[in-house]
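Final paragraph of the annual report: two paired records, presented back to back.
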Amino acid sequence: MSTNHNGETNSISTNEATTSVHDGILGRSEFSEQQPTYRRAMFRQHAGSLRQSVPNLNVDAQSHLTAPPKAAMIKRNLNFRRSVPNLKLNLDESYTNWDVIKGKSLPAYPLGRTELIDLPPSQVAKNIAEALRMKSVHAIYDSIDAEATCTTACDCKFKITLFEAEDSNHTILEVLKSRGCSLTFSKLRRAVSKAANGDFSVVDDAPLCLSIPDCVAALYTPPSSDDIKKILTKSSKELQTSRRDGQLTALRLLAAMTDADKSHKSTCINVATMILEGEAGVRETCINLLSSETSDEYSDRVDKAVLDVFSNSLSLLYMSGDIQKVTESEDPWYFQSLFPSLLQSMKQCPCPHGCTLVSQCLSVLLQSSSDMRHEAVKEGSLETILEHALARGKKSHANLYDHAQSAIDALHCQ
């Protein structure tokens, strides 16, 4: 029951009262007849969002809940944005500098794990950008908001934010992971922290692996050729479905089976040989995925997984000395499908990790086949593409620089 300003008595149901509370306040409300209270969930504040001030509610058990006055909308700070910018990747955004003039303003909510750096934000940004280049971490920089969105070759993604401290000669550093391997992120966060303070000393990033005793390794029986063919057939069927999560899982399985650091070496060589020889149509399906016109973050991850499979397979056979058996065959797939697809990927790939894998594939092909070098010279644009990749790698990605230079040297090989 409630009384209006004219003295008339109105009856308000519990559902109506609760609905009105929902309309007026952000959050979820709970109502109990025994103890009519209102509890508001903690409001999560995002960068660039609007903040609401919510008045306190004094609930009377005899008069039920009443709708609160309309909350006033206020700006969180002077740098608030009306809309979130579109972060669509392109070649220009992938190879920019991090020229920070001023750190980001501290938010109203408490931050997580942070670190105070005894250097101004401009110098911290330059130090971190150099460390990310040396570590071959793909970073997209936002100099205005003092943020860097980073992705490693193993798809570990994290964000670096520089906040302004009370002293303009100091910087508050925050590094947050959004996806990927926690061990990889932990190593990178330590490296970023050291680089922010001007320490670029090299740390051993090799994974800590226990060696398998010889007595146990002798008991291992690698899968037979028939078993590998069954795996490739199942993977090929999964790659031909429309489920992109299934495609990515199958590609990562094939990439692991062609990586000698993750699988038995003899098994890796057998799998790589079968893939490059066209077993179960895996290589054709991978080329179709690589040539897809879909452009979003997930498709970029699929493309990189395809390049991982090709790069691992070609590099493994090159190191084992079996690459000539594949590249010097009369199979036209290398000239008509693989080589043109690699060139197209190099031209359009916004991620330096993908360009690095393409450069590695081209380097192996050019070093192992004189016919491939002749085809590359005849095509005419490969050297220009590789020089462009070399310049981008010199600026922001050490591995891209090394593999692009290797491919250029192989192209000029007689």
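The closing record of the year follows.
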Amino acid sequence: MQNSGVKDNQLRDNSNQKVHPQPMEEVNNQNPEAIETLISRIFSNISSLKTAYIQLQAAHTPYDPEKIQATDKLVVSELKNLSELKHFYREHNPRPVCVSPQDSRLAAEIHEQQSLLKTYEVMVKKFQSEIQNKDSEILQLEQQIQDATQKKLKLEKNLKLRGLSTKESEGCGSEPGIPSVELNFDLFKLALEDASRAVHDFSKPLINMMKAADWDLDAAANSIEPGITYAKRSHKKYAFESHICQKMFIGFQDESFSLVLENPPETKESFFQQYLALRDADPLDAVCSTTDSSFGKFCQTKYILVVHKKMEESFFGNLDHRNFITRGGHPRTAFYQAFLKLAKSVWLLHRLAHSFDPSAKIFQVKRDLEYSEVYMESIMKNFTTKDDEQKPKVGLMVMPGFWIGGRVIPSKIYPIAAQVTE
């Protein structure tokens, strides 16, 4: 009786337990070694993910954009590896079949795809944000380039006004003590001294050629300015210097120098640029390199004025110089090259005069005017007049004077009836 009762109880207990059918394939696929290997890979992947995440946090302090981007990619890569392990396990170890195993697996797949989709959406937003940041950086860099270009143009403009190119300025920066060229009163005064010296230098070959052609120098000097009593016979050279100066400075006050120019300078800076361009150039190279230049036209016009037709014919026995020049040419003779040096110095002085704002103004003194220490300077440093009580008067104007910036550069003159004192 007891045995039968015990058996009945056991049967009732067994009937109360639920029985889950297990597919034979799943039972057969349960490989302990494979499961152990999978678990090891999972733990290794998690460790790598943890390390990558720590590196990502470290990249924020201090903030390093490149390092952040690299570690972020590493974190995403480890997450992908972990997802692949999950898929691998599900494919080889399906879950126990319940009511609807296909629906359960499909739901899991959908959930997995949704998770991946969210991950990709986050990544897309991140990439879009990075693109926007890069676009913003590009715009900022473009603006910086524009600002730098404008600053460069301003610096080049200032360097040109100082008479330096970019390369020259770099050289000057490395070699302190080399002065730059600035537009000021002293620069103009030096240019005027150069022009005065050039007039004197050209008068020498002119007088020598007159001597060689048997000219009467006394008569020639008297024809320029009659009735002048010179303290020394050698002082008659000032009559020829006066003649050269008078012809060379005709039209000086006009910006065009009384020439018809196709492209006249339009600004004060343009005048100074022309001065700088010609300052260190060889005058013959300058007129020959550009046949229709303003400086070339100036040289041709002034040569015709300074060297009279009869004078040239007596010098060379023909008018080849004159004819060649009137046709637009520039002879390569020594005499014409000496003239070009004179023309260059006067042209540079004119470019400088009109670089100032307002322009420097030229003034000339006429014969018989009383000597003024403010507006005149005598070529003869130590002299007296025959009548000590009489003020000296102007005999010849050898070089004009100038007003510039409220200051006066006196005209150089040769006084009448002057006597040299020791």
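Confidence is low (pLDDT under 50) at residues 14-28, 162-179. This concludes the annual technical report; the extension proposal builds directly on these records.
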